[in-house]
Amino acid sequence: MSPTPPVRRLRLGLPRRMFSQVLMAQVAIAAGVAVLATGLFLAPLGDQLDDQAMRRALAIAQTTAAQPRLARDVQTTPATADGPVQREAERIRRATHAEYVVVMDRRGVRWSHTEPSQVGRHVSTDPSDALAGREVMEIDEGTLGRSARGKVPLRDGDGEIVGAVSVGIAYDSVRALLLHAIPELLAYAGGALAVGAVAAWLISRRVQRQTRDLAFSDIAGLLAEREAMLHGIREGVVALDRAGRVRLLNDEARRLLGIGDDAVGRAPDEALGTGRTADVLAGRVTGTDLLTVRGPRVLVANRMPTGDGGAVATLRDRTELEQLGRELDSTRGLIDALRAQDHEHANRMHTLLGLLELGMFDDAVEFVGEAVGDHRATAEQVTEKIQDPLLAALLVGKATVAAERGVALRLSGRTRLPDRLVDARGLVTVVGNLVDNAFDAVAGTPHARVEVELRAQGRTAVLTVRDTGPGIPAELRELVFTEGWSTKEPPAHRERGIGLAMVRRLAERQGGTATVREAAGGGAEFTVVLPEALTGPGAEPALTVPPAPRAAEEEA
Description:
Blueprint: H1 18-65, H2 68-76, H3 84-96, E1 100-105, H4 128-131, E2 136-142, E3 145-155, E4 161-170, H5 171-211, H6 216-232, E5 236-240, E6 246-249, H7 251-257, H8 268-272, H9 276-282, E7 290-294, E8 297-305, E9 311-317, H10 319-357, H11 361-385, H12 389-405, E10 408-411, H13 424-442, E11 449-457, E12 460-467, H14 499-509, E13 513-518, E14 524-530
Parallel strand pairs: 10-11
Antiparallel strand pairs: 1-4, 2-3, 3-4, 5-6, 5-9, 7-8, 8-9, 11-12, 12-14, 13-14
């Protein structure tokens, strides 16, 4: 026995495709609006037609009652089917296409009627209001059926009420007008529905192209995934619209750029201030892996245009990598210096061994004393002028590197800096960058010399680094502080053009300045002013030691 095939059940429901859902929704809305508009139009139309019919009946009754001869004939002639009142009323009825024109006396007896047999009989509706002198408009039932009626009093020449005139217009004619208007109205509604359906189809096609025919559930899922991705990745993401305004920021971008939600809807220049970071985000600087400095952070930025005219920029924090690169440079320099010292130490040991073998013991003692005294003098000279241990250690290490590279590193005689720095690490970064930059500038030049001056002016620290290199042309003195700008080839492990930019940013962050000018005698002179860099009112004033001549300046 063959197995029974599974029964496929027809499942009814909304289609999954967005195109079909939007089209059905818009057609349903257009149909609903058409039906509602038709109903709202027809509802008052019947009332308007009834009112027009009653007013027309009243106007005919008023015109009939205004004839003086009719009131006189009611008073002087009998109510007969061929009397003057009947003839006049029928003439008016045929001329106005009314259903009936009834003239009655004060007792309610008819003097005219569409059916002659009804002449002389009482009217079928209450005539009291008209006989009391009031005009009446109504829809009522009578011997001729339902009609729109107008009743007015009939007065003689003296104004006395002698009867009433009742005029009726067939209600079927009113209904016929209403029914006659419905097909035309439905035709208009159908046309509007057709236009709405075509417009809905066009809109749905556009939505289909823009959404790539995804279902609403797919779009909702993509949106949820996008939100999770944007706020979960450890890269900053900044989306800009076609006008260049910030449209979206993820959490990492807010942290790296130091801005909040108030930046959304604003241009990068407004949200970040003028600078390289804003230029990169706005697309004024192009390229890949562009370096920029934002506050204390070194960022790598990439910008990709989008199809709608906007762009998406990604930001990576490279601060730690940059610091590691600089530490690697310093470590390599120290290794080279230690290698040189090791070579120098071996030479000294050989010299000492030779003196001992020759029995020149006094000369050996003097030689050892001079070798040890040189290093002790260098460290003591630095720590005497610079009391902060981090800065002193940095300059002692730089002195070793300078000796290896054949550069004379000097401390100015005006150097005096107490151990009251607010941000010693920041000043170490500034000094290290400027000294390294000066070493690069004087490399390969004869009589290479770098001079460092650190002094306090109240609570302000002033740093000056001079070198005997080729100097910096006047037109490039602002450009050297721009991120990514450098005249030297970058090393393999990191980019160039960051050190001086970071120096200026660190200075500006503390409300200070970083400038460069031509040094006396040639070369470049960098000056960094850091207000409020020292704590306490006891900071040493500037120039506590009088300037010493060049010959008296100590060599670090």
